[in-house]
Amino acid sequence: MEVRGAGKAYLSAGSTVNALADMTLALRAGELTGIVGPSGSGKTTFLMIAGLLEPPSTGAVLFRGQPIADARTRLNSLRDFRRTHVGFIFQKANLIPFLTAVENVQIALEINDVRPKAARAKARDLLARFGLEQRENNYPTQLSGGEQQRVSIARALANDPVLLLADEPTAALDGARGRQVMQEFRKLADERQVAVCVVTHDPRWSDIFDRIVEMSDGRMTTVRPGGAPTAPVEL
Ligand SMILES: Nc1ncnc2c1ncn2[C@@H]1O[C@H](COP(=O)(O)OP(=O)(O)OP(=O)(O)O)[C@@H](O)[C@H]1O
Ligand SMILES: [Mg+2]
Fold this sequence. Notes:
Strand content: 25-35%
Bound molecules: adenosine-5'-triphosphate, magnesium ion
Structural class: alpha/beta
CATH architecture: 3-Layer(aba) Sandwich
Mean pLDDT: 93
Number of domains: 1
Order of helices and strands: EEEHEEHEHHHEHEEEE
CATH class: Alpha Beta
Number of helices: 6
Shape: globular
Strand order of the largest sheet: 6-7-8-3-9-10-11
Radius of gyration: 18 Å
Distance between the termini: 21 Å
């Protein structure tokens, strides 16, 4: 998925906020990209545009080289595409409160016409991958913040997305759980060629990323390779 020359202006309280300005970034299959930057620098806005949840105000979004969204696109028309291609992990877990953990994951599959029994089995597998086998029948209020976040990660993976966008997925997790989630993302990129993009404030994961994009004031300021810290490349 490529975001090309994208800007995003929000009108709020009569004034315009330029949340994103002329951002160009391609998220490629098999690549794990980290996005860092201060609060309000446009990280979530970028994910929303790359994940086709918001149209850009200017510029365009391309999928496999073909234009898929611009300012005129009605995003409802992309709902099916999103459902089958994109996994989104929001800054807040956003679970459905009246469904249990396993049902929250299961419903993502059933929406895509997976039969209930198969959906249940896959949902349970996914929860087990994140150490939640003992929690699958709990409702969101009966889960800790970190557990809720892990359910939302399992849900984002339910339909085997080719693009996975995660907004601070490890913020509510302790170090070991956080690393486990990041390693799961690494594996998805390596073994299934998923394009993964993760917003994070956490410097502990920088070794896991292929590259780290820094944002400031709605712009991409530097891109540097992940792994051991190196000098950033000025854009
Ligand atoms: N729906 C909206 N309406 C008006 N302004 C918005 C809206 N969404 C975001 N903004 C503004 O756009 C700017 C970028 O917001 P964004 O959520 O992308 O930042 P962020 O980098 O994700 O920050 P954080 O690290 O705090 O999550 C901010 O100034 C924010 O107030
Ligand atoms: Mg944000």
